[in-house]
Specification:
The protein is mainly alpha-helical and about 1300 residues long. It contains 52 helices and 16 strands. A hairpin with a 2-residue loop joins β14 and β15.
Length: about 1300
């Protein structure tokens, strides 16, 4: 423990300590301490250092503990801690399958630079805490990203981690226009303009994407025409991305179809529909067509709803396309009344007992179950029953056999206890205006009290005693009115309570982004409006409209209302803003109705809790009465009866006045449009249409009488009846509209069928919905059908047949003949010029007609592209002269089309044509230079360029083959951590090496498995088609150094150095472009930089356990057993033979960590040659220009005839092949060492080679004969030392020599 602490302190105080971006000096020191202690434990050469530590396990635990504790507190980019970053990442990307743990694992696999990139991008584009009260586009982005499918989500995370500019606009788009419309904050000089969150939202919403899937995060010039003004926040709703909706499952489609068919009345209920649909559909069903099928079947069977009782028969009919009768289903000829239930046979009314009034039989009731009127005449039946009780009994509809005795009584409850007579009382808080005698209604009966009514009644208002008193009263009244006018709308006390409420809600919501918080933070309107509102509140200058805004928020957010009351704010205080909002809404609705000329509002709806009994209207009722009569102040205080000024008015007089007022109110209500609607509805409901016995007028009078008795109850009834009337009318209108719509749809279907135009029922319904009438809908469909047909015809007509393509690249000469190289057409296509151009035409055709082309034609086009890339697939015996690259460069062809697409050109238009011509000329120059100066150098100048200064023109060992180490591999411990490097020497022995200290191996020391190489390509072929001159070479070297400085500056957090590196990169890039090079000549795309880091630790541990070794040059895993076996047969390890094979035959694998955490292992699909110089890839097609030294080496190997032939045989047999090492010794120096004396195999080969020697034919024949005898004797002597493979190969060689000898003789 002490040693670890000492090491930590020394590292912490070391001024040269490397501190990665985002870390502190302390955390960097502990990370380095942990790394060194672990390395010492596993490195055999460092055991002496480790032995000084008494408790290595304790040190390791201590280092782990400190490392985790420090890491938890380290800021990650703009986030204050790792926990904050993890939380934001989870909010934006957690989904059904993506857990926080899986996200943490993805992040842990990233390099420090990638983590910082990811953190900044998540904060900028997805973190809702950065919204600052604006529209929450960040949350919209987060909801979109979290809903993505796992593969797309993985791609998005990768993009966010790889660059600080994940969402860009194409560099060619006008930067000012982008900025003015809010898509970018500032212009960029290269690499695309970085988008704002608004621009990114519009891009990922699908409205601005580049066509195709290659650039999902770039706005193209063509699609920028669909721009919005994003500087205006009102437009943000239109550009917010929607959640990804996964494709519907078969079960979801079945459920949706069941709902649709039930809604359309085809099934009696959804359960039945689900049962039938489940029995008639599967994964391959076209559900639109199935809707039509069931709909047609339903009509064939008579159009009556399909019931559950016959579902099996319906399933059989639908599956067998029959219309056999089904049990319980109404046949086609039957007539069914849909609205009325089937009539039941009339049953005799069973006797019942009614309370204590005795037993009543069927003869006592009419057909509706009411007691016959004759029973109420006289006192024979109902003795001692009041008129009110009789009226109640007459209104009851009795049910047959029901018990009306009332439970718990033997003889029946007493009627007088059940139906208590009404007490004629005056409402406690009723108030009416003074009336004159002329206005008093005449009583219908003499008053019970012996009070003589006066002939006239005077108003209650008393005259003042004199004029002075009258003037004083008027002055007081005016002063009172002036005081009221000056009185503020909202009192100081009310301001105080509002300020308390706002403080409580502010503490809860300010800075938050929940729905309730956004509602509160913006309840006054914009941010500026809210600030003005708060200032008015502090100055006690709020208006009632201001208070209403707060009331609206409280009404819409009940939790805030509850919180206020929990904080001790009274309901009186909280009710004030709610009431203000209610008054404001009522006033606005009245204003709207008045402006629209819609008359009175609907009848008031009374809730039962608001009715205080039959007579208790309350203070509001008094207010309305005051308004109706036009007298009194109408303030509704409920102060009691103020009288008429004559104390002789009795209670009966009050009742009569109230009855008169109620009658007037009834007349007024029933005079409105809503009242007339209610009258008509209630009349038809009670008496039917055009009843000859009761007229509508008589019915109205009866309702009027009921209303006078109990206005409150009847108004509630009228309100309910009005609602029922509205619903009935609405249902009738909907039914009529549906019938009309169905007829139009049917008509449109028939017209389409008669014109041979394809259309299903849903399409017809959609067209009618869009266009309204059948003629317009049919014309639109006809035009759309014609346009679609024309597009399909154009899409399905490919530019060429496959035979046409073959003729264009080979001419008239058979590509398998010996004279094929004489074809002028084939010579034109020597380097794939014609093939690439044809491939570009096919790709442009596909992108132009994507989505319209038939699947069969699309498949044919793909096959044509495959043929152009490798014509030997169609002509397996095709002869390919050395140096020919006849296959199409599909990548270049696609890049041409993509560039035209991004520039907004029509892919088959003249602008695109000029672009293609320019790019194809550049490609021809580059390919010609690449082939003649690098792959197959012919002239001395080209050989000098390829092999290096001062090299032997026939030897290339000092050229590109000196720049890679194909014999080295990495060492790993059991956990998959890199511990060192080993290399096989020319003698086959392994030599262990430490990592370099010049910085080139830092990614191995860091364990950075995602480390990438330089953006500057290793192999550069300029567009101008000439050799790179000294100035261009110097600029390329400087550009590479500038990129390295940029990465170092970013890693160390040195902003100044980073800025300088950016300037250097821009200058060197410009220098190269000024000399005629395209950026694509010398720069990798950001995402295309070659990987250079070690494999993922989990992958390394997995592959190491299988006995596999990591080959650095080819970045794959090689079987150590297979490697040792090939070296053991004196082949690859010796100097005479090399092995050629693919991944499966040689035991070479690739392995990657999948997004789901599963390791994906497979055989490498490439071809390799294994020699004493290690493993080299082989490229026999060489149809593109490689960007790496390894790629150029592969093409050089692919040009060697024996290796090319062996590669073909590997593909046929699946086994490795042996080739003579001398065939490639000029590349790899294979066979030039003399570390061992020649073995028998080499001696036999040397002897066989001398067979062709001699001065004359006769002497040569004789000499060869002697040598053959010597070789046979040599093999016999060394037979015990030869393997079976060596013996077989020598016998084959001797057989050939014998045949030559016979021919010579």
């Amino acid at each position: 423990m002490a040693k670890a602490k000492e090491l930590y302190i020394s590292l912490r105080d070391d001024p040269d300590l490397s501190i990665p971006e985002g870390e502190t000096r302390e955390s960097a020191a502990w990370n380095e301490t942990s790394h060194r202690m672990r390395q010492h434990q596993s490195n055999a050469k460092a055991l002496s250092m480790a032995s000084e530590v008494s408790e290595p396990s304790s040190i390791e635990k201590f280092a782990d503990f400190i490392e985790k504790a420090v890491a938890a507190k380290i800021p990650v980019g703009p986030f204050e801690s790792k926990a904050a970053f993890d939380k934001a990442l989870g909010f934006s990307f957690k989904g059904v399958k993506t857990t926080q743990a899986s996200l943490n694992k993805i992040v842990s696999d990233l390099s420090n630079k990638e983590k910082i990139n990811l953190a900044h991008n998540v904060h900028e584009y997805f973190n809702s805490a950065t919204d600052e009260g604006e529209h929450d586009l960040h949350t919209e982005m987060s909801e979109w990203s979290s809903s993505l499918p796992e593969d797309e989500k993985s791609g998005l995370l990768k993009k966010l981690a790889s660059t600080r500019k994940p969402f860009t606009a194409n560099q060619s788009i006008n930067a000012k226009e982008l900025k003015d419309n809010g898509y970018i904050g500032r212009a960029a000089t290269k690499g695309g303009h970085k988008l704002t969150v608004q621009g990114a939202a519009h891009l990922v919403s699908g409205k601005m994407k580049v066509a195709g899937k290659n650039n999902p995060f770039i706005i193209s010039p063509a699609n920028f025409k669909k721009k919005e003004n994003l500087s205006d926040s009102d437009s943000w709703d239109a550009i917010a991305p929607e959640k990804f909706e996964p494709p519907k499952t078969t079960k979801q489609k079945q459920n949706q179809l069941a709902r649709d068919l039930t809604d359309d009345g085809i099934f009696e209920n959804e359960k039945t529909a689900n049962k039938v649909i489940a029995g008639t559909t599967d994964d391959d069903t076209d559900f639109n067509a199935h809707y039509d099928k069931i709909s047609d079947y339903h009509e064939e069977l008579g159009g009556h709803p399909i019931k559950s009782s016959g579902s099996k028969g319906h399933i059989d009919n639908l599956n067998n396309n029959t219309t056999e009768p089904v049990r319980q289903h109404v046949p086609k000829e039957a007539k069914v009344t849909e609205d009325k239930p089937a009539e039941k046979p009339e049953e005799k009314f069973k006797a019942i007992q009614i309370y204590d009034q005795g037993r009543f039989t069927a003869d006592d009731f009419d057909s509706e179950g009411k007691l016959k009127p004759a029973l109420f005449e006289g006192d024979e039946v109902f003795a001692d029953v009041s008129d009110a009780q009789k009226e109640h009994l007459q209104g009851i509809t009795f049910e047959s056999g029901k018990d009306y005795k009332k439970a718990g009584t033997e003889d029946g409850a007493k009627l007088k206890d059940v139906i208590k007579p009404k007490t004629e009382t005056t409402p406690a808080r009723r108030r009416r205006a003074p009336t004159t005698a002329a206005e008093q209604p005449k009583p219908k009966a003499a008053p019970k009290a012996d009070v003589k009514k006066p002939a006239t009644k005077k108003p209650a208002t008393k005259k003042p005693a004199d004029k002075a008193a009258a003037d004083k009263a008027a002055a007081d009244k005016a002063a009172k009115a002036a005081a009221e006018a000056k009185k503020p709308e909202v009192s100081v006390e009310q301001h105080k309570s509002i300020q308390e409420m706002v403080k409580v809600l502010g503490d809860k919501h300010v800075g938050k982004t929940t729905d309730a918080s956004k509602s509160f933070n913006n309840f006054a309107g914009s941010k500026e409006d809210s600030e003005k509102w708060f200032k008015r509140m502090l100055r006690n200058e709020l208006t009632k409209d201001d208070v209403a805004l707060l009331g609206k928020h409280l009404q819409n957010n009940g939790e805030d209302l509850d919180d206020l009351r929990r904080k001790g704010i009274s309901s009186d205080d909280t009710n004030y803003p709610l009431l203000a909002h209610g008054e404001q809404v009522a006033a606005q609705e009245a204003k709207v109705r008045t402006a629209a000329g819609q008359g009175d509002p609907p009848l008031p709806i009374k809730d039962e809790t608001e009715i205080d009994g039959e007579g208790g209207e309350g203070e509001g009722e008094g207010e309305r009465e005051g308004e109706r009569e036009g007298e009194g102040e109408g303030e509704g205080e409920g102060i009691g009866d103020i009288g008429t000024g004559d104390t002789g008015v009795d209670a009966a007089d009050k009742k009569d006045v109230e009855a008169e007022a109620s009658g007037k109110e009834f007349d007024k209500l029933m005079g409105t449009d809503h009242g007339k609607q209610v009258l008509a509805h209630m009349y038809e409901e009670t008496h039917g249409k055009d009843n000859p016995f009761t007229s509508p007028e008589e019915h109205k009078e009866a309702l009027r009488a009921d209303f006078i008795k109990n206005p409150t109850k009847e108004k509630t009834t009228y309100s309910k009846k009005w609602k029922a009337s509205e619903k009935a009318d609405s249902t009738a209108e909907e039914k009529a509209e549906k019938t009309e719509q169905t007829a139009k749809v049917k008509d449109l279907e028939n017209r389409a069928a008669g014109s041979d135009l394809k259309m299903n029922k849903r399409e017809a319904a959609a067209l009618i919905e869009e266009h309204g009438d059948v003629d317009t809908a049919f014309d639109a469909h006809e035009k759309a059908f014609a346009d679609k047909t024309k597009k399909q015809e154009s899409a399905n007509e490919l530019p060429y047949t496959t035979d046409d393509l073959a003729k264009k690249i080979f001419g008239d000469v058979d590509p398998t003949s010996r004279l094929t190289h004489l074809s002028a057409d084939r010579k034109k296509n020597k380097y794939g010029e014609v093939s690439t151009s044809l491939a570009r035409e096919l790709i442009a055709h596909y992108k132009t007609h994507s989505g319209v082309m038939d699947k069969k034609v699309e498949k044919e086009l793909i096959e044509q592209l495959a043929f152009l890339k490798d014509p030997s697939k169609r002509f397996p015996n095709m002869r390919i002269p050395k140096g020919e690259t006849i296959g199409a460069d599909i990548k270049v062809a696609n890049a041409m089309v993509k560039e035209a697409e991004e520039k907004g050109f029509a892919l088959d238009g003249p602008e695109a044509g000029r672009l293609y011509e320019k790019r194809e000329a550049e490609r021809t120059r580059r390919v010609l230079h690449h082939q003649t100066a690098h792959v197959n150098p012919t002239t001395d100048e080209n050989k000098k360029t390829s092999h290096g200064e001062g090299a032997d023109p026939n030897e290339e060992k000092t050229g590109v083959f000196s720049k890679t180490d194909n014999n080295s591999s990495l060492h790993f411990d059991e956990d998959g951590n890199v511990t060192g490097r080993k290399r096989r020497g020319s003698d086959g022995e392994e030599q262990h090496e430490s990592f370099k200290t010049d910085g080139s191996d830092d990614h191995h020391l860091r364990g950075d498995h995602e480390a990438r190489g330089s953006r500057v390509k290793e192999h550069v072929v300029p567009s101008h088609g000439n050799h790179l001159d000294d100035k261009e070479k110097e600029s390329l070297g400087s550009l590479k150094e500038a990129h390295k400085s940029k990465e170092d500056a970013v890693r160390s957090g040195d902003d100044k150095a980073s800025t300088q590196a950016d300037a250097d990169i821009a200058q060197h890039t410009k220098d190269l472009e000024d000399r005629g090079l395209q950026q694509s000549d010398f720069l990798h795309d950001e995402d295309d930089r070659p990987k250079v880091g070690p494999p993922h630790a989990d992958v390394a541990a997995h592959m190491r356990a299988q006995g596999l070794e990591w080959n650095e040059a080819n970045r794959n895993w090689v079987s150590k057993e297979g490697d040792d076996e090939r070296r053991g047969v004196k082949g690859s390890a010796g100097s005479s033979f090399s092995h050629v094979g693919d991944g499966a035959s040689m035991g070479i694998f690739t392995a990657e960590m999948g997004a789901d955490g599963v390791i994906n292992q497979a055989h490498d699909t490439r071809t390799f040659v294994h020699s004493s110089a290690g493993y080299h890839a082989v490229d026999t097609n060489h149809d593109s220009i490689p960007s790496s030294n390894g790629g150029l080496q592969a093409q050089k190997f692919g040009q060697i005839g024996s290796i090319k032939s062996a590669a073909g045989k590997v593909g046929e047999t699946g086994k490795t092949q042996m080739v003579a090492a001398r065939d490639h010794s000029h590349l790899t120096a294979h066979g030039t060492h003399d570390s061992q004396p020649p073995d028998v195999f080499e001696r036999a080969g040397s002897a066989a080679k001398k067979v062709a020697g001699g001065v004359s034919k006769v002497a040569r024949v004789a000499a060869n004969a002697r040598r053959l005898i010597g070789i046979k004797k040599l093999i016999e002597e060394e037979s015990d030392n030869l393997s079976s493979v060596q013996s077989l190969q020598l016998h084959i060689a001797l057989q050939k020599l014998e045949e030559k000898q016979k021919t010579a003789v």
